[in-house]
């Protein structure tokens, strides 16, 4: 799917960095049990919503430490540290996702 960074999925890594840049650190300690941590990124082509499960149990169908991605409200991906799936459309794709995550503050 994407280039690996020391064994990590690049898209998952960039989503996690975006969360950190937006002030989300120690996610499992600050989020309530059973809650996902969510951020919206307004990118060049549309709106990405990134949801992270920081808990050791499945929450809302998302495995521990997994990231669920939507684009303009549509399902666009499911990522974890080892890889995953991401949309491959004209606007919603790995290249645009990575660019928008890197640009997000």
Please describe what this structure looks like:
By secondary structure, the chain is an alpha+beta fold. Helix content is 25%, strand content 30%. A 5-stranded antiparallel beta sheet has the order 3-4-5-6-7, covered by helices on one side. A hairpin with a 4-residue loop joins strand 3 and strand 4 (47-52). Helix 1 (10-21) runs parallel beside helix 3. The two termini are 25 Å apart. The relative contact order is 0.24. The mean pLDDT is 90.
Can I get a quick summary?
By secondary structure, this protein is α+β, with helices and mostly antiparallel strands. It has three helices and seven strands. It has one domain.
Number of strands: 7
Residue fraction in strands: 25-35%
Distance between the termini: 25 Å
Shape: globular
Q: How are the strands of the largest sheet arranged?
A: 3-4-5-6-7
